[in-house]
Amino acid sequence: MQGFKTFILMLTMTFLLLLIGRAVGGRNGMTIALILAGVMNFVSYWFSDKIVLSMYKAQELSETHKVYWITKKLSEGAGLPMPKVYIMNESQPNAFATGRNPNHAAVAVTRGLVELMDDNELAGVIAHELGHISNRDILIQSVAATLAGAIVYMANMAKWAAIFGGGRRDDEDKNGGILGLLAVSIFAPLAAMLIQMAISRTREYKADKFGAKVSGNPRYLANALRKLESYSTRIPMNASPATENMFIVSPLAGSKMASLFSTHPSTAERIRRLEELN
User: What is the value of pTM for the model shown?
Assistant: First the structure.
């Protein structure tokens, strides 16, 4: 049932992209939007892991690092292939998983996470990320982020089209003129963001439950989330909003506006659910 809901939400995002394309350029614009969606999803499927790891200048860890060994032990316990393990030189404690499937996956942690967490808490965080890998959330989240980015890009085109010329008008395509373009440029990105939030939030709970089971104790992850909630609001991170949904907690939590429209559920609610698993 959850998979069907996700499919409908992704379909809705694709429809929004086509709607903007039609508003900007009629049928030709809709065709261009469809091609754009196809190209971006292709790139997202094959290269999203390399793109996001490069974006955060992540460095692959050697087998001598404790995060590598914690990941290896948890992966074996979960029956998953060993992912590549990376570290980001960021003070904010955080982590994410990326890759198109369990056989081509990576887990990335920040330097701040390694310094702040004890081994049990690290295990809880890494097990959570392995949950995303096991549930194939990372591909869905990458595609959702890509579609959201394309919608924002097309919405900006609609805004400038409204400012400099309005919608196309001919016998075949009636696009609502300037008001229609402005409405699309404002509401389509908002709708895309809300859909992205819905996709991400439901999957965080599922990954939390997986992490609690694989790490051996729900309190490991619950304690880690308490620290993450506290420090992520105090230590800034230069993170892209398009990748916010990939992290275990929002890297933009220090911003009040970002918190209001966060792709993550309430940390307090996540902790409550984990503690009920005991």
Answer: 0.78
